[in-house]
Amino acid sequence: MKKQTRILLTILCIVFLCVFAFSGYKLYSIIHEYNAAKRMYNGLSGEYVTQADKDQAPVQTQAPEDETPIEVSPISVDFDALLAQSKDVVGWLYCADTVINYPVVQGEDNDFYLYRFIDGTYNGSGSLFVDYRCTGDFSGELSVIYGHHMQNGTMLASICNYGKQEYYDAHPVLYLNTPTQNYRVEVFSGFITAADSSAYTWDFTSDAEYAAYLEKMKGFSDFDCDVEVGTEDHIIMLSTCTYEYDNARYVLYGKLIPIS
């Protein structure tokens, strides 16, 4: 009996050690991927993005003094050099005082960049990418940009904070730079929805259908704002996972305003 007990205890110890070793390996792998992603995106932003002086306002006055002030993006992106790294780059998304400072790509499907950097290297953080069915130059009525909700708060995890009014009040604007045009992104709605909901719509048969969609999406918003949107506007929708229920997503809408 004692021998059987010793054998059983030995087996249990081996099982526990295996579980512990496997858990340690998985934890190491996750931390390694997080660190690799941090190095990658810090390297990209450091090499290809220049930020304006924080003391400068994003509105810059042209000379002579009587000309209309123009708004400029708080970042400039060397797209010529960036496109040499990846032909799939279509923009760069930035939100001041947040972690959002990432290139945006568009692949031939919605799978390739889900777990790959812009250079094709595998990583769980993946890339921010435009739905392959949308226009890559953001000229359509709605362009959907997907990104992971990483547990360390990176990628698009922070957009879930728009569920609180005070977060919107502190971050009402993002910026989207592209190779041909820069935009101020005026945020006007954010809410939780299902992955297969009607929020994921980008083909509209008429202005009336588009207007009804915009009104419906703005009506769902977790926060109040005074941003007006109409059928003449082009918008982006950021989409990431959230965990209130199975296949839940947090979506954030913004109106594109062309700037320099």
Could you characterize the architecture of this molecule?
This protein starts with a helix and ends with a strand. The strands form 3 sheets. The protein has an 8-stranded mixed β-barrel. It is an alpha+beta fold and 260 residues long. The protein contains 4 helices and 12 strands, in the order αββββαββββαββαββ. Helices cover 28% and strands 25% of the residues. The longest helix is centred in the N-terminal third of the chain and has 47 residues. About 6% of the residues have low confidence.
| Share of β-strand residues | 25-35%
Structural class: alpha+beta
Q: Residue-averaged pLDDT, rounded?
A: 88
The string of secondary-structure elements, in order, is: HEEEEHEEEEHEEHEE
What is the alpha-carbon Rg in Å? Answer: 22 Å
Q: Count of DSSP helices?
A: 4
Unreliable stretches, pLDDT < 50, 5 or more residues?
Answer: 15-29
The largest sheet, given as strand count, sense and whether it forms a barrel, is:
8 strands, mixed, barrel
How many beta-strand runs? Answer: 12
What spatial form do the alpha-carbon principal axes imply? Answer: globular
Q: Distance between termini?
A: 82 Å
Helix content estimate: 25-40%
Strand order of the largest sheet: 5-6-7-8-11-12-10-9
